[in-house]
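Quick question, first post here. What does this chain look like in 3D?
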Amino acid sequence: MTADNRGQGKLCKHRSRARAVWFSAILASSLPAFAQDGRESFGVQTELSIYFRNGTDGARHDPDWPIAKRAQERTGVRLEPVTFPESGDTARDHLQSLISSDTFPDILGGGGLREVFNSLGPQGALQPLDTLIAQHTPNIATYLEANKDALAGARAHDGKLYHIPVIDPAPTGPVWVIRQDWLSRLDLPPPNTVAELEAVLTAFRDGDPDGNGLRDDVPLAMTMPGRLDHLLVLWDGRGSGSGLAADFRMEQGRITHGYTTEAFRTGVRHLAQWAREGLIDLAPAADQPWGMSLIDPAALGAEGMPTGLQVLAPPASVTGYRVGPPRRSTLRDEGWGIGFRNPNPEATIRYFDFWFSPEGAALANFGIEGVQYDRISGEAVLRGVEKLSPADIETQMRTIGARISRGYPPDPAFDRAILPPAGRKAVDLYRAGGFWQRPLPPISLRPADQRFYDLKAPAIRNFMRERLTAWVSGESDVDDEWRAYQAELIALGLPDLLKILNTAYRQQGCSCAPSPETRISPPPEAAEDPTIANPPITLNIHFRDYSGRNTYDEDTPVERQAAIRTGIALRNVPLKRAEKPADAINMFLTSGDMPDIFGGNNIEDAIRYWGVQGAFLPLDSLIADHAPHLNHFLQSRPDLVAGARALDGQLYHVPNFPDGAYSLGYFIRQDWLDTLGLDVPQTVDELHDVLLAFRNDDPNGNGEQDEIPFFARLQSELLHLVTLWDARNSGSTEFFDFYIEDGVIRHGAAEDNYRRAIRNLALWYREGLIDPALINAPGSDRDTILQSNLGGMTHDWFGSTAAYNTIIGEEIPGFKLRPIAPPQSPSGRRIEERQRPQIFPHGWAISHTNPHPIETIRYFDYWFSPEGRRLANFGVDGVHYDLIDGAPVFRPEILNGPSSVVDLLLKDGAQIPRGFPQDFAYEAQWMNDIALEGIRLYEDGAFLADPLPHLALNESELRIYLRYWRPLREYMAERSMDWIAGIGDVDTEWDTYIEELNDRGLNLLLTALNAAYQRRECSCEGAE
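> Answer (accepted):
Ran it through. Tokens below.
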């Protein structure tokens, strides 16, 4: 990652342009929202009571404000403030008191009330507004539709909207500034990286840049101590996710806290060193000269600021990222709602709507035309503010009732107009560079959770802020106190608080599941005649089978039947030299002779890449217009197709969709348990005791200690045992893959539970509970171990493992190999992480030179029809199966043939890696009752961990993945197996191991994968 890579906050901003267009449109309009005499809209003068506390200064509503008077003239509505109750100081206290009285206000409004709105609303104190908005407010309805992404955080936990929020279309945040005159005097360029920044700060300290002959200059001044943690990004740490010091933050689709990470500790260590060396001052005197700081753009050029300040792009971090502080939230904590006693909610909501009309919006933002502003060439230009600071202008506007915390649409033109030129330049630079971090989104909590948050969050933030200041100032050392610090955070309730916040965020955020309003096309009726082409046509296909051969068998029973039924035959186009799909596509493009269809095993990444380049046709429109079965399938499962899309959002291939989630499970020798008088183990400790008994108590009865307590065909299965100690090895079918938890992609081999698991597996290996072949060879010889009556327990596929009860049951009297539930971990969890993927990287695509794209997509659709799906899964009716009571049933010669059912089907053209939906029933038919019993056991117990979602990586993310992942995975596996075998010690070598993981690119991989996951979540939202 180079220093020019931009930072956070660019995802899911597809609605920002709609906001800008909307605002331009309403200001350009000359039509008022109400009739020419506003009072005609209400018929009579209407008086409503209001409880109002302005967010900035706490001011109450004043009906004599010039803005209030003008609004009354235009709408006929007068707002009378209620008397604040004497009990309590907060709005919540006041409103709770008013609820029980007869004076509960008709309108509640002001700043800092969103949590109050969303708490009291579901309790019945406020009226829900969605229906009122839809029926009576054309301006608000249009505005909220253009701001759907921000509106989610304004809703209460019951999904309803109880207040009209204030949504800022162009929020800003702090920026880096530097004394350009000091740089010029010392002949230094602006710092571009953290290393260059340290060199500049050192020069500012030693070089007397202000020329007064004293060493009194502050290189980096924290003029606002709450922004100290914004410096942590220089070492890839993260501080607060908002303007509130030590606040929670949004990171890779999940709410977390930056103060708990190793990168935070590293950043604190460096900041403490800077403080010791005099490069940073946490509390500079007001008259002390300083060279760099973080300030708001509005403060540039303000009185008291140093001369010669210049805005600076954030210096690149140690890994090359340029990340600035978080910007303010798009959703402001301001607005107003309608009280439950309001006698005229329709008139009230129309009054609210006035402030979103062109006339009302201009009044709320700029004041009265001809008094506070003039309209010149269609633009509002403020009067008499040339010599005022932005803060003074805002204060002046509030004194007349403009720019207060009512529900209205802030105009970005106002914010820009009051900025000094240097401030505008700073905003333009940080917006263009995408430097501001995405802020912590507003979260609506249930009342009990809100009370827990109010109790715990301030104490946690205060503790964190105190420790950060103490560590950086040198009062104590972060490394000495780190473990105690983490323990105190747990004691203060941080894990519980994070769980509450993430649960609430997921509930209010985008989901890939179809919403109740989503219209899914009904499944098409089965067509009697699936003919697509008459006369028949032939399409060329380049196809890669599961063995990697570049060939498509044109003469299989399944291919012949499909050609007869559809009128489309496929002709194989081989390519001998290409080993990878991407190479094959490149060779075809170079030759100028692309096949009509490109498909087969593991082609997805190549199709997505070359699809964006124009080599393949985008399929969405073709599917919607010509593929009803496929269209219905994809609409019903947008979560699946999201990960198959290319970076441009288009779908370029029809994937292969597996069926059935459960594939592997634990099996144990029930007859051995019976022989030793033992129960099925329910916990990891009980499992240890059972395996120890298998090892020592001669359950096979041959008088020798030859039993192998745990064995597995694949070495990878040994490391899946880490789940027994709450660790994770993988979130997919891939060995040592990443996994997802609480909305963030992680890797289990870098977490403390993994260390505990490896420590215990090493103990089990020393005790002889694990087959040495799992360390010294690719895996155990399952056939030999079971046929020799040596194996006690394994983890393997349900179908093939359960079959041993039939295969060798007669050879070993009483042989019972039975499935059991995953034993409970120390925390009480039963975890099975091995499962089928949600989508295979197989399928097929239509090339850009295909002369029959409509016929081809209809051919693809055939395989999603009931007939085509049966053909793809079971083979040919009357040859491989018979249709009995509407269901395909394999013939005896297929089930009892000389080869496996799967091998026979593949040979005859079924179950090949074309684009089709698998049917688990084909597999269930050749499973015995014991295997099906195991699957039901795992289904009923819901043991599966959340699967790693299917991700589409962009070009830069794919480069990171290809560069780092394979060697990193090999290193993880090597160290893990060494520790289990007793080569080294996991506890003494753990810190070095973690450092090595990051040196080998783990953090870069996690950042890339989480970015892809965040895009996937947004694409799911768009699909709805």
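The longest strand covers residues 46-53.
Residues 968 and 1000 are 6 Å apart (CA to CA).
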